[in-house]
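Question (not urgent): is this output format expected?
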Amino acid sequence: MADRTNSRVALMAIHPGYANAILDGIKKVEFRKRPLADDVTRVLIYSTSPVQQVVGEFGIERTVVDHPNTLWDDFGDIGSIDQDSFDRYFASRETGVAFVISWTKKYASPQRLNELASSPSIPQSFSYVEG
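Got this back:
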């Protein structure tokens, strides 16, 4: 993994289909219920079961926090998720987050978490690691 910055990096658990869509340039926004820390501009992609490896990374162009309906209107067409799934994910939430993706890098050799310098545990949603 290239060291792009000295700031923290997020390690984000993403289902394999969505992880692949991000790395293939199809999914251009990642939806979450909570924002990341302001200093985070790089995200490592931990592809969940059955892959269970860090398969790549992406950069955050900008973070948008808004009502889920507004997020859907603005980003639904580039989020690689159907509206029913999106609505279930954000059910009864007043705000949601869209991380607009600026660049991606697919690793030639995916890594297990214990191979990372900080040996983080599997993130429930995301965690921070040293950049």
